[in-house]
Amino acid sequence: MTDRTTNLAGRPRRRTGPRRTNPRSATSLRAARLRPADIVRLGGTGLRTRPLRVFLSALGIAIGVAAMIAVVGISGSGQAEVDRRLDALGTNLLRVAPGNSLNGAKAELPLETVRMIDRIPPVRQVAATGVIDAHVYRNEHIAVGRTGSLTVLAAGSDLLPAVGGRVGKGRWLDAATEKYPAVVLGSTAAHRLDVYAPGTRVWIGERWFSLLGVLDPVPLAPELDSAALIGWPAARTYLRFDGHPSTVYVRAEDSRIAAVRAVLPATAHPEKPGEVQVSRPSDALAAREATESALTGLLLGLGGVALLVGGVGVGNTMVISVLERRPEIGLRRALGATRGQIRTQFVTESLLLSAIGGLGGTVLGTLITAAYALSRDWPTVVPVWATAAGVGATLLIGMIAGLYPAVRASRLAPTEALAGT
Protein backbone atom coordinates (compact mmCIF):
# COMPACT_ATOMS: atom_id res chain seq x y z
CA MET A 1 0.00 0.00 0.00
CA THR A 2 1.41 3.30 -1.07
CA ASP A 3 1.91 5.92 1.64
CA ARG A 4 0.40 9.20 0.47
CA THR A 5 -0.10 12.63 2.10
CA THR A 6 -2.07 15.68 0.97
CA ASN A 7 -0.62 19.00 -0.07
CA LEU A 8 -2.06 22.44 0.58
CA ALA A 9 -4.49 22.03 -2.27
CA GLY A 10 -5.83 18.80 -0.80
CA ARG A 11 -4.39 16.68 -3.51
CA PRO A 12 -2.61 13.51 -2.60
CA ARG A 13 1.19 13.63 -2.78
CA ARG A 14 3.50 10.68 -2.92
CA ARG A 15 5.98 10.58 -0.06
CA THR A 16 9.46 10.32 -1.30
CA GLY A 17 12.41 8.93 0.53
CA PRO A 18 16.12 9.72 0.12
CA ARG A 19 17.16 9.73 -3.55
CA ARG A 20 19.47 6.99 -4.55
CA THR A 21 22.34 7.79 -6.86
CA ASN A 22 23.58 5.57 -9.66
CA PRO A 23 27.20 4.61 -9.03
CA ARG A 24 27.83 4.74 -12.76
CA SER A 25 26.64 8.39 -12.98
CA ALA A 26 28.87 9.60 -10.18
CA THR A 27 31.61 11.96 -11.23
CA SER A 28 34.93 10.13 -11.32
CA LEU A 29 38.02 11.76 -9.85
CA ARG A 30 40.32 13.30 -12.43
CA ALA A 31 43.66 15.05 -12.04
CA ALA A 32 43.54 18.80 -12.48
CA ARG A 33 44.89 20.05 -15.80
CA LEU A 34 47.86 22.43 -15.57
CA ARG A 35 47.75 25.62 -17.58
CA PRO A 36 50.88 26.73 -19.45
CA ALA A 37 51.50 29.46 -16.87
CA ASP A 38 51.27 26.87 -14.07
CA ILE A 39 53.73 24.62 -15.90
CA VAL A 40 56.26 27.45 -16.29
CA ARG A 41 55.82 28.50 -12.67
CA LEU A 42 56.26 24.92 -11.49
CA GLY A 43 59.40 24.44 -13.57
CA GLY A 44 60.81 27.74 -12.37
CA THR A 45 60.30 26.74 -8.74
CA GLY A 46 62.77 23.89 -9.14
CA LEU A 47 65.35 26.33 -10.48
CA ARG A 48 64.85 28.94 -7.77
CA THR A 49 65.40 26.43 -4.99
CA ARG A 50 68.90 25.57 -6.27
CA PRO A 51 70.33 28.86 -7.56
CA LEU A 52 74.02 27.93 -7.38
CA ARG A 53 73.64 24.71 -9.31
CA VAL A 54 71.42 26.42 -11.85
CA PHE A 55 73.98 29.19 -12.28
CA LEU A 56 76.84 26.75 -12.84
CA SER A 57 74.84 24.63 -15.28
CA ALA A 58 73.59 27.68 -17.19
CA LEU A 59 77.15 29.03 -17.23
CA GLY A 60 78.36 25.87 -18.94
CA ILE A 61 75.68 26.22 -21.61
CA ALA A 62 76.37 29.94 -21.96
CA ILE A 63 80.08 29.34 -22.49
CA GLY A 64 79.36 26.80 -25.21
CA VAL A 65 76.87 29.04 -27.02
CA ALA A 66 79.09 32.11 -26.56
CA ALA A 67 82.03 30.22 -28.03
CA MET A 68 79.99 29.24 -31.07
CA ILE A 69 78.55 32.72 -31.65
CA ALA A 70 81.91 34.39 -31.02
CA VAL A 71 83.64 32.12 -33.53
CA VAL A 72 80.89 32.71 -36.09
CA GLY A 73 80.76 36.44 -35.37
CA ILE A 74 84.51 37.00 -35.46
CA SER A 75 84.80 34.94 -38.62
CA GLY A 76 81.88 36.83 -40.15
CA SER A 77 83.43 40.16 -39.20
CA GLY A 78 86.75 39.09 -40.67
CA GLN A 79 84.99 37.89 -43.81
CA ALA A 80 83.20 41.23 -44.11
CA GLU A 81 86.56 42.97 -43.92
CA VAL A 82 87.95 40.64 -46.58
CA ASP A 83 84.89 41.30 -48.75
CA ARG A 84 85.39 45.02 -48.35
CA ARG A 85 89.00 44.78 -49.44
CA LEU A 86 88.25 42.41 -52.30
CA ASP A 87 85.46 44.68 -53.51
CA ALA A 88 88.03 47.46 -53.57
CA LEU A 89 90.15 45.21 -55.79
CA GLY A 90 87.24 44.74 -58.17
CA THR A 91 86.63 41.01 -57.93
CA ASN A 92 83.00 41.57 -58.94
CA LEU A 93 83.82 44.00 -61.75
CA LEU A 94 83.53 42.87 -65.36
CA ARG A 95 84.47 44.81 -68.47
CA VAL A 96 82.60 44.50 -71.74
CA ALA A 97 84.32 45.81 -74.86
CA PRO A 98 83.90 45.35 -78.62
CA GLY A 99 86.18 42.84 -80.24
CA ASN A 100 86.99 42.34 -83.89
CA SER A 101 84.44 41.61 -86.57
CA LEU A 102 84.74 38.71 -89.02
CA ASN A 103 86.44 40.91 -91.61
CA GLY A 104 89.06 42.04 -89.13
CA ALA A 105 87.64 45.52 -88.63
CA LYS A 106 86.98 46.95 -85.18
CA ALA A 107 83.47 46.06 -84.01
CA GLU A 108 81.23 48.37 -82.02
CA LEU A 109 78.63 47.86 -79.32
CA PRO A 110 74.99 48.83 -79.90
CA LEU A 111 73.62 52.07 -78.49
CA GLU A 112 71.30 50.11 -76.16
CA THR A 113 74.06 47.99 -74.62
CA VAL A 114 73.96 49.62 -71.18
CA ARG A 115 70.18 49.39 -70.90
CA MET A 116 70.16 45.74 -71.97
CA ILE A 117 72.88 44.74 -69.50
CA ASP A 118 71.11 46.59 -66.71
CA ARG A 119 68.15 44.22 -67.11
CA ILE A 120 70.18 41.22 -65.90
CA PRO A 121 68.88 40.58 -62.32
CA PRO A 122 72.25 39.92 -60.55
CA VAL A 123 73.79 43.11 -62.00
CA ARG A 124 74.19 45.80 -59.34
CA GLN A 125 75.74 48.64 -61.33
CA VAL A 126 76.49 49.26 -64.98
CA ALA A 127 78.21 52.27 -66.55
CA ALA A 128 80.01 52.97 -69.81
CA THR A 129 82.58 55.17 -71.47
CA GLY A 130 82.83 56.02 -75.14
CA VAL A 131 85.93 57.06 -77.09
CA ILE A 132 85.61 60.50 -78.70
CA ASP A 133 87.58 61.43 -81.79
CA ALA A 134 89.10 64.53 -80.20
CA HIS A 135 92.20 65.63 -78.32
CA VAL A 136 92.70 67.63 -75.17
CA TYR A 137 95.26 70.45 -74.81
CA ARG A 138 96.05 72.95 -72.16
CA ASN A 139 95.29 75.83 -74.56
CA GLU A 140 94.70 76.46 -78.22
CA HIS A 141 98.38 77.31 -78.85
CA ILE A 142 99.68 73.77 -78.29
CA ALA A 143 100.83 72.15 -81.52
CA VAL A 144 98.46 69.58 -82.98
CA GLY A 145 99.66 66.09 -82.26
CA ARG A 146 101.23 66.83 -78.89
CA THR A 147 98.44 65.07 -77.09
CA GLY A 148 100.55 63.56 -74.31
CA SER A 149 98.83 60.19 -74.98
CA LEU A 150 95.65 61.52 -73.38
CA THR A 151 92.25 60.32 -74.51
CA VAL A 152 88.86 61.98 -74.45
CA LEU A 153 86.01 59.84 -73.18
CA ALA A 154 82.28 60.32 -72.86
CA ALA A 155 81.01 59.26 -69.45
CA GLY A 156 77.83 59.27 -67.43
CA SER A 157 77.26 60.37 -63.86
CA ASP A 158 77.07 56.70 -62.80
CA LEU A 159 80.62 55.85 -63.91
CA LEU A 160 82.49 56.82 -60.75
CA PRO A 161 80.52 54.60 -58.32
CA ALA A 162 80.79 51.64 -60.71
CA VAL A 163 84.59 51.73 -60.87
CA GLY A 164 85.13 52.77 -57.26
CA GLY A 165 86.71 56.13 -58.14
CA ARG A 166 86.92 59.28 -56.03
CA VAL A 167 87.21 62.95 -56.82
CA GLY A 168 90.40 64.50 -55.48
CA LYS A 169 89.53 68.13 -56.25
CA GLY A 170 86.35 69.77 -57.40
CA ARG A 171 83.30 67.69 -58.28
CA TRP A 172 82.10 64.92 -60.55
CA LEU A 173 79.64 65.10 -63.43
CA ASP A 174 75.98 65.26 -62.50
CA ALA A 175 72.64 65.56 -64.29
CA ALA A 176 73.17 69.29 -64.84
CA THR A 177 76.85 69.56 -65.74
CA GLU A 178 76.94 66.56 -68.10
CA LYS A 179 74.90 68.55 -70.62
CA TYR A 180 77.37 71.45 -70.87
CA PRO A 181 81.02 71.84 -71.95
CA ALA A 182 82.57 70.69 -68.69
CA VAL A 183 85.33 68.17 -68.15
CA VAL A 184 86.79 66.03 -65.35
CA LEU A 185 90.45 65.06 -65.69
CA GLY A 186 92.09 61.88 -64.51
CA SER A 187 95.06 62.18 -62.18
CA THR A 188 97.65 61.52 -64.90
CA ALA A 189 95.89 63.81 -67.39
CA ALA A 190 95.81 66.67 -64.86
CA HIS A 191 99.52 66.17 -64.16
CA ARG A 192 100.50 66.23 -67.84
CA LEU A 193 98.36 69.28 -68.59
CA ASP A 194 99.42 70.92 -65.31
CA VAL A 195 95.80 71.82 -64.66
CA TYR A 196 94.33 71.26 -61.22
CA ALA A 197 92.15 74.20 -60.21
CA PRO A 198 88.42 73.78 -60.91
CA GLY A 199 87.17 76.46 -63.25
CA THR A 200 90.30 76.44 -65.41
CA ARG A 201 89.60 76.12 -69.13
CA VAL A 202 91.10 73.41 -71.34
CA TRP A 203 90.98 73.14 -75.14
CA ILE A 204 89.13 70.05 -76.41
CA GLY A 205 88.04 69.52 -80.01
CA GLU A 206 88.43 73.15 -81.04
CA ARG A 207 86.31 74.29 -78.07
CA TRP A 208 86.91 75.50 -74.54
CA PHE A 209 85.74 73.24 -71.71
CA SER A 210 85.59 74.25 -68.06
CA LEU A 211 87.36 72.00 -65.56
CA LEU A 212 84.96 70.55 -62.98
CA GLY A 213 87.34 68.38 -60.99
CA VAL A 214 90.34 66.07 -60.89
CA LEU A 215 90.10 62.38 -59.98
CA ASP A 216 92.30 60.46 -57.62
CA PRO A 217 94.01 57.43 -59.22
CA VAL A 218 91.46 54.71 -60.07
CA PRO A 219 93.10 51.29 -59.47
CA LEU A 220 90.19 49.34 -60.97
CA ALA A 221 90.15 51.38 -64.19
CA PRO A 222 93.66 52.81 -64.74
CA GLU A 223 92.68 53.88 -68.27
CA LEU A 224 90.65 56.69 -66.69
CA ASP A 225 93.77 58.22 -65.13
CA SER A 226 94.97 59.47 -68.52
CA ALA A 227 91.57 60.56 -69.81
CA ALA A 228 89.49 63.70 -70.05
CA LEU A 229 85.92 62.76 -69.14
CA ILE A 230 82.99 64.65 -70.64
CA GLY A 231 79.30 64.16 -70.02
CA TRP A 232 77.56 61.85 -72.48
CA PRO A 233 75.01 64.43 -73.69
CA ALA A 234 77.68 67.16 -74.01
CA ALA A 235 79.92 64.85 -76.04
CA ARG A 236 77.14 64.27 -78.55
CA THR A 237 76.26 67.95 -78.68
CA TYR A 238 79.69 69.58 -78.88
CA LEU A 239 82.07 66.88 -80.12
CA ARG A 240 79.95 64.87 -82.58
CA PHE A 241 80.12 61.72 -80.49
CA ASP A 242 78.19 58.84 -82.11
CA GLY A 243 76.95 57.43 -78.76
CA HIS A 244 78.40 53.90 -79.08
CA PRO A 245 80.03 52.71 -75.83
CA SER A 246 83.62 51.49 -76.05
CA THR A 247 83.88 50.00 -72.54
CA VAL A 248 81.06 48.93 -70.24
CA TYR A 249 81.80 48.38 -66.54
CA VAL A 250 79.51 45.84 -64.87
CA ARG A 251 79.25 45.15 -61.14
CA ALA A 252 77.40 41.94 -60.25
CA GLU A 253 76.71 39.82 -57.19
CA ASP A 254 79.80 37.89 -56.14
CA SER A 255 78.03 34.53 -56.19
CA ARG A 256 76.65 35.12 -59.70
CA ILE A 257 79.75 36.46 -61.45
CA ALA A 258 80.24 33.35 -63.59
CA ALA A 259 76.58 33.27 -64.63
CA VAL A 260 76.55 36.97 -65.51
CA ARG A 261 79.77 36.67 -67.49
CA ALA A 262 78.28 33.79 -69.50
CA VAL A 263 75.26 35.82 -70.68
CA LEU A 264 76.98 39.18 -71.20
CA PRO A 265 78.04 38.71 -74.85
CA ALA A 266 74.54 37.75 -76.01
CA THR A 267 73.00 40.51 -73.89
CA ALA A 268 75.39 43.26 -74.96
CA HIS A 269 75.15 42.43 -78.67
CA PRO A 270 72.33 39.95 -79.39
CA GLU A 271 72.99 39.96 -83.15
CA LYS A 272 76.77 39.40 -82.94
CA PRO A 273 77.73 37.99 -79.52
CA GLY A 274 80.99 36.68 -80.95
CA GLU A 275 82.22 40.25 -81.43
CA VAL A 276 82.02 41.03 -77.70
CA GLN A 277 84.92 40.63 -75.30
CA VAL A 278 84.28 40.12 -71.58
CA SER A 279 87.07 40.26 -69.02
CA ARG A 280 87.60 37.36 -66.59
CA PRO A 281 87.03 38.12 -62.89
CA SER A 282 89.88 37.97 -60.45
CA ASP A 283 91.06 34.63 -59.09
CA ALA A 284 90.69 36.13 -55.62
CA LEU A 285 86.93 35.63 -55.91
CA ALA A 286 87.30 31.88 -56.39
CA ALA A 287 89.75 31.74 -53.49
CA ARG A 288 87.26 33.59 -51.28
CA GLU A 289 84.47 31.14 -52.15
CA ALA A 290 86.72 28.19 -51.28
CA THR A 291 87.67 29.82 -47.98
CA GLU A 292 84.01 30.46 -47.10
CA SER A 293 83.01 26.83 -47.70
CA ALA A 294 85.89 25.49 -45.59
CA LEU A 295 85.18 27.99 -42.83
CA THR A 296 81.49 27.05 -42.75
CA GLY A 297 82.34 23.40 -42.14
CA LEU A 298 84.74 24.32 -39.34
CA LEU A 299 82.16 26.51 -37.63
CA LEU A 300 79.49 23.81 -37.79
CA GLY A 301 81.88 21.35 -36.17
CA LEU A 302 82.82 23.74 -33.36
CA GLY A 303 79.21 24.69 -32.76
CA GLY A 304 78.14 21.04 -32.56
CA VAL A 305 80.83 20.21 -29.99
CA ALA A 306 79.95 23.26 -27.88
CA LEU A 307 76.25 22.46 -27.85
CA LEU A 308 76.93 18.78 -27.10
CA VAL A 309 78.94 19.77 -24.03
CA GLY A 310 76.12 22.04 -22.90
CA GLY A 311 73.55 19.25 -23.39
CA VAL A 312 75.60 16.84 -21.29
CA GLY A 313 75.72 19.44 -18.53
CA VAL A 314 71.95 19.92 -18.61
CA GLY A 315 71.34 16.17 -18.54
CA ASN A 316 73.70 15.70 -15.59
CA THR A 317 72.02 18.50 -13.67
CA MET A 318 68.54 17.10 -14.23
CA VAL A 319 69.52 13.53 -13.25
CA ILE A 320 70.96 14.80 -9.96
CA SER A 321 67.86 16.95 -9.45
CA VAL A 322 65.59 13.91 -9.82
CA LEU A 323 67.63 11.92 -7.31
CA GLU A 324 67.54 14.73 -4.75
CA ARG A 325 63.85 15.47 -5.21
CA ARG A 326 62.44 11.97 -4.80
CA PRO A 327 60.43 12.96 -1.70
CA GLU A 328 58.91 15.89 -3.61
CA ILE A 329 58.02 13.62 -6.52
CA GLY A 330 56.46 11.02 -4.18
CA LEU A 331 54.43 13.67 -2.36
CA ARG A 332 53.11 15.14 -5.60
CA ARG A 333 52.19 11.67 -6.88
CA ALA A 334 50.42 10.90 -3.60
CA LEU A 335 48.43 14.14 -3.91
CA GLY A 336 47.22 13.16 -7.37
CA ALA A 337 49.81 14.34 -9.86
CA THR A 338 49.95 12.15 -12.94
CA ARG A 339 53.03 10.77 -14.60
CA GLY A 340 52.52 13.13 -17.51
CA GLN A 341 52.51 16.13 -15.18
CA ILE A 342 55.74 14.95 -13.55
CA ARG A 343 57.36 14.55 -16.97
CA THR A 344 56.15 17.97 -18.07
CA GLN A 345 57.50 19.57 -14.90
CA PHE A 346 61.03 18.28 -15.38
CA VAL A 347 61.12 18.84 -19.14
CA THR A 348 59.97 22.43 -18.57
CA GLU A 349 62.64 22.88 -15.92
CA SER A 350 65.28 21.59 -18.37
CA LEU A 351 64.02 23.93 -21.12
CA LEU A 352 64.12 26.94 -18.80
CA LEU A 353 67.65 26.06 -17.74
CA SER A 354 68.71 25.75 -21.37
CA ALA A 355 66.97 29.01 -22.33
CA ILE A 356 68.78 30.92 -19.58
CA GLY A 357 72.12 29.54 -20.70
CA GLY A 358 71.36 30.08 -24.40
CA LEU A 359 70.27 33.69 -24.01
CA GLY A 360 73.20 34.47 -21.72
CA GLY A 361 75.60 32.85 -24.20
CA THR A 362 74.11 34.84 -27.07
CA VAL A 363 74.67 38.13 -25.26
CA LEU A 364 78.17 37.11 -24.18
CA GLY A 365 79.14 35.93 -27.66
CA THR A 366 77.84 39.15 -29.24
CA LEU A 367 79.84 41.28 -26.79
CA ILE A 368 83.01 39.27 -27.46
CA THR A 369 82.53 39.66 -31.22
CA ALA A 370 81.93 43.40 -30.97
CA ALA A 371 84.96 43.95 -28.72
CA TYR A 372 87.29 41.98 -30.98
CA ALA A 373 85.98 43.60 -34.18
CA LEU A 374 86.35 47.09 -32.74
CA SER A 375 89.89 46.33 -31.63
CA ARG A 376 90.80 45.33 -35.20
CA ASP A 377 88.79 48.12 -36.84
CA TRP A 378 86.54 45.58 -38.56
CA PRO A 379 82.82 45.85 -39.20
CA THR A 380 80.89 44.01 -36.48
CA VAL A 381 78.89 41.16 -37.99
CA VAL A 382 76.84 38.73 -35.88
CA PRO A 383 74.68 36.66 -38.25
CA VAL A 384 71.07 36.37 -37.19
CA TRP A 385 71.06 32.73 -38.20
CA ALA A 386 73.88 32.04 -35.75
CA THR A 387 72.03 33.50 -32.75
CA ALA A 388 68.75 31.86 -33.74
CA ALA A 389 70.45 28.52 -34.36
CA GLY A 390 72.36 28.76 -31.08
CA VAL A 391 69.27 29.40 -28.96
CA GLY A 392 67.13 26.93 -30.92
CA ALA A 393 69.69 24.15 -30.78
CA THR A 394 70.20 24.79 -27.07
CA LEU A 395 66.47 24.40 -26.41
CA LEU A 396 66.34 21.24 -28.51
CA ILE A 397 69.33 19.69 -26.75
CA GLY A 398 67.96 20.83 -23.38
CA MET A 399 64.66 19.08 -24.08
CA ILE A 400 66.42 15.90 -25.18
CA ALA A 401 68.77 16.02 -22.18
CA GLY A 402 65.89 16.52 -19.76
CA LEU A 403 63.65 13.85 -21.28
CA TYR A 404 65.36 10.85 -19.67
CA PRO A 405 65.39 12.33 -16.13
CA ALA A 406 61.76 13.37 -16.61
CA VAL A 407 60.69 9.86 -17.66
CA ARG A 408 62.66 8.38 -14.78
CA ALA A 409 60.98 10.72 -12.32
CA SER A 410 57.50 9.94 -13.67
CA ARG A 411 58.03 6.20 -13.18
CA LEU A 412 58.72 6.52 -9.46
CA ALA A 413 55.88 5.04 -7.42
CA PRO A 414 54.64 7.29 -4.56
CA THR A 415 55.48 4.68 -1.89
CA GLU A 416 58.95 4.08 -3.34
CA ALA A 417 59.70 7.79 -3.55
CA LEU A 418 58.41 8.55 -0.02
CA ALA A 419 60.27 5.58 1.41
CA GLY A 420 63.54 7.28 0.54
CA THR A 421 62.87 10.24 2.89
Key attributes of the depicted protein:
two-stranded antiparallel sheet, 421 residues, 11-stranded mixed β-sheet, 15% strand, 50% helix, alpha+beta
Number of strands: 13
Q: Which spans of ≥5 residues are poorly predicted at pLDDT below 50?
A: 1-10, 23-27
Helix content: 40-55%
What can be said about the biggest beta sheet? 11 strands, mixed
Helix and strand element order: EEHHEHEEEHEEHEEEHEHEHHHHH
Alpha-carbon Rg, integer: 40 Å
Strand content: 5-15%
Structural class: alpha+beta
Q: For the terminal residues, how far apart are their CA atoms?
A: 64 Å
Mean pLDDT: 80
Overall spatial form: elongated
SS summary, helix count: 12
How is this structure best described in words?
With 421 residues, this protein is α+β, with helices and mostly antiparallel strands. 50% of the residues lie in helices and 15% in strands. It contains twelve helices and 13 strands. The strands form two sheets. Strands 3, 4, 5, 6, 7, 8, 9, 10, 11, 12 and 13 form an eleven-stranded mixed beta sheet that branches. The protein has a two-stranded antiparallel ribbon with strand order 1-2. The longest helix has 42 residues.
